[in-house]
Structure formats: C-alpha cells, structure tokens
C-alpha cells in the first residue's frame, strides 16, 4: 500500500474537533472528568454499607435500633425498606460525589503544578499530603450542601425516626429537603452546618489517601515499568483508603452528628466541636467516636479500589485523545 493511500485511511478531523480533543486531553481536565466517573462507580458499589455506616454513626446513647452486626443491619434495612432501603440516598450521593470527586482529582492535579520542579517529577510525601489536603478542602466547599442532604435522606426513613406509614409516604426528596432546610433552619448557613469538623477530617483524609496511594502504587510497580497491573492498582487503592479512613474516622462521626444537630426527634444539641466530643465520650465512651467504623472499613477496600482503578482507566483513555497521540 502506498504512503498516499495509507494517509487516506487515517480519520480526518476538523479544527474544532481537534481543539475539543486537545482540551479534553489536558491533564487537569482529564483528571476532572475521570474523577467524576471514579466517584459514581465507587459510591454505587458500596451504597448499602455507606448507608449502614451513617445509621450506626447517628445513634446516640439510648437508641439501639441499629445496634447490630453488619450482616444483621443490612438484613434489617432490607426487611424494613426493601432494596430501595439499601440504596436510599445513593442518587443524591452520586449527584454529590461526581462533582466532589471531579473537583478533588482535578484540583489535586492543578495544585501539583505548584510543587513539581518539572512535570512528572516526584514531589515527595509531604508535598503530596499538602496537595491532597488542599484538594479535599476545595471539593468540600463546592459540594457540601449535597452531602448534608444525602445524610438527611439516608436516615429519614429508618425505623428509629419513629415515622408513621403516612409520614413515610410523603418524605421530601433531595431538592425539597434543600429548600426546607434553607427556609426553616437558617438559610445558607444551614446548608453548611458541620463543615468545620468536615474540613478538619477531609483535609488530612484526602491528603493521606493521595499520599499513601502514590507511595504504594510506586512500591507495587515492577522495576522498569511505569504502570502497575489493574490488580496492583486495586490493592494500592484499598490500602490507601483503609489507612486514611482509620486515621480520620472520628471527624466523620462528628460531621454526621452536626449535620442532623437540628433534625427533630434525633436528640442532638451540641454547642460546638469540643462540646460534641465531650458529650459523645461521656455518654457513649471512646467507642462513640468510632461508631460505624466496621461497615466503613468493609466498604473502603471495594470503594477506593474501584475509585482509583476507574479514575486511572478513564484518565488514561482521555489522555490518548490528544491530537498528537494519533502519530505515536
């Protein structure tokens, strides 16, 4: 086949298509899109365990409806509410997690530019930790109202909410809950209730997650190769998630408690962060700061593993859309 005929078989793209492909293939934009995909995949995979964790977390002393093992807790959700109970709040969670995860991964790659001496160089553990923490804070501020609504939706139909069947039939959805909170609980501040313990937990969590993942990924990459296998990426994601979650879990409990602090019938009236810690430890012991950690750790492995794997696969695909990649 002649060179001219071979050239004629190559796909022809107009300038606008090439410009679009070039934009999508930019590292920050590719990371942003891949992060959104990773968030949706990972949260849907572990939705039942995520909801069970929240139900464990928000139980104060004297409330024992969900003082159960993980298996029995999941069975109770199934018996009380059917398969919808296992997935309740997941739609809102995905609507929240897609932009949350996209902003987190995208901003991490953006912040990396200020710490790398040259593109692709090793930043070191401390700089990864700082970049990850900054990315976590950025993503929280953009998506926090959806997080607080997800928490409300996750618990409003559970049995300890003491609702009649008629009340359960007219439970508000995501936008109705947002509007109701805004109108009756203090405007925009109501939608950001609990953000201080959230930021206090998210910054080190995301920082530890990114730092640990890149360290473990590098360790698991065979010498002379740039990319580990999918199985090794899954392992790196599971390890990084478990380390980060265990170190920062008490902040997650505090976040959930503050998100429902004004919710009727739940019995929480914390005056501040330190008051909440004092009351929880006094009434529930140190274990109160780790309520729900078992289902949380059980979900970490599949959640973070699927998140990092789907992120890398999507990002790598988008990076191949660069116009010059066709010549490689």
From TrEMBL:
GO cellular component, as recorded: mitochondrial inner membrane
Gene3D superfamilies (alphabetical): Mitochondrial carrier domain
Bilayer topology term: Multi-pass membrane protein
Domain of life: Eukaryota
SUPFAM superfamilies, alphabetized: Mitochondrial carrier
Recorded family membership: Belongs to the mitochondrial carrier (TC 2.A.29) family.
Main function: Mitochondrial transporter that mediates uptake of thiamine pyrophosphate (ThPP) into mitochondria.
PANTHER family hit by this protein: SOLUTE CARRIER FAMILY 25 (PTHR24089)
Protein name: Mitochondrial thiamine pyrophosphate carrier 1
Species name: Lachnellula suecica
């Amino acid at each position: 086949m002649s060179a001219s005929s071979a050239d004629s078989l190559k796909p022809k793209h107009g300038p606008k298509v090439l410009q679009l492909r070039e934009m999508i293939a930019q590292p920050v934009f590719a990371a942003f899109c891949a992060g959104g995909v990773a968030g949706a995949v990972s949260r849907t995979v572990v939705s039942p365990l995520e909801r069970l964790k929240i139900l464990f977390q928000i139980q104060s002393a004297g409330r024992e409806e969900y003082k159960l093992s993980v298996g029995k807790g999941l069975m109770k959700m199934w018996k009380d509410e059917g398969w919808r109970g296992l997935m309740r709040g997941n739609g809102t969670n995905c609507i929240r997690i897609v932009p949350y995860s996209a902003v987190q991964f995208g901003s991490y790659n953006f912040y990396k530019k200020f710490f790398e001496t040259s593109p692709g160089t090793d930043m070191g553990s401390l700089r990864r930790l700082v970049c990850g923490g900054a990315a976590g804070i950025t993503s929280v501020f953009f998506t926090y109202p959806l997080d607080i609504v997800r928490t409300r939706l996750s618990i409003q139909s559970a049995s300890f909410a003491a609702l009649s069947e008629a009340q359960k039939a007219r439970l508000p959805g995501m936008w109705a809950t947002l509007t109701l909170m805004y109108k009756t609980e203090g405007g925009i501040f109501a939608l950001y209730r609990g953000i201080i313990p959230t930021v206090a937990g998210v910054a080190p969590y995301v920082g530890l997650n990114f730092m640990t993942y890149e360290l473990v990924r590098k360790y698991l990459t065979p010498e002379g190769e740039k990319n580990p296998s999918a199985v090794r990426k899954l392992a790196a994601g599971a390890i990084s998630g478990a380390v980060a979650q265990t170190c920062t879990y008490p902040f997650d409990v505090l976040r959930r408690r503050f998100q429902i602090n004004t919710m009727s019938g739940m019995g929480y009236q914390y005056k501040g962060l330190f008051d909440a810690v004092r009351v929880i430890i006094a009434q529930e012991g140190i274990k109160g700061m780790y309520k729900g950690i078992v289902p949380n750790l059980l979900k970490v492995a599949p959640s973070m593993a699927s998140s990092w794997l789907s992120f890398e696969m999507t990002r790598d695909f988008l990076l191949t859309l660069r116009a010059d990649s066709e010549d490689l």
